[in-house]
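Example record

The entry below shows one chain as it appears in the dataset: sequence first, then structure tokens.
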Amino acid sequence: MVSNKDNLFATPLNQVSDFQFDDAVAEVFPDMISRSIPGYQTIIETIGQLAASKVVSGTNVYDIGCSLGAASFSVSRHCSAGQCQIIAIDSSPAMVERCRRKVEAFQLPNPITVKQGFAQSETITNASMVVMNFTLQFIPPPERPALVQQIYDGLQPGGIFVISEKIRHPTEQGNDLINDLHLQFKRDNGYSELEISQKRAALENVMLIDTFDVHKTRLEQAGFADVVMWYRCYNFMSLVAIK
């Protein structure tokens, strides 16, 4: 699938609307995500490596907020053929349609079923791995504890929940420092000040981020026995929560 260049915010907008995962975003998503999140490809590759070591034969793997299916494809390719069933879920019709086309275009060692739906409505069963890759931050905060509990309850003992998120540092000084580093990362990847400013305005009401401590506490309250931060760069992290 050809990736188009992300220039959605390159020209001045009379009014910046709230960010949506619509057709326009889906068309440029691979370019957008690689230029916006440091280490994104490392995270995707590591999700596959975690699957290879932790997914139990005959179980399900859930990719919640799958977008174009990068994490699902990584799991499918890293696991032994026929080891698991992967269920990829996204609320965006544009993402689901393109993800289905990708799945149909490849012969995969482990099948991927792509579903349109909301994370909060999905029943997790017989799972040895659940992935939420930069998804929880778009779920309304009051609904997050119940969703994490639902994931915990659907995992088998020893199962893992991989959650990647943008996070907020607990102090203003520290938060300013990591935000400045991330902004420079985006500049170095070709985004203009206008693009950075307009995209920030589009996201401010829909992407509500937590601190690491909030994430850790929520996971522990759900029952997870251990929470491991395996990746951190600037204001982005990825955790493995172990049941």
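Notes for this example: The chain has eight helices and seven strands. The first helix runs from residue 23 to 36.
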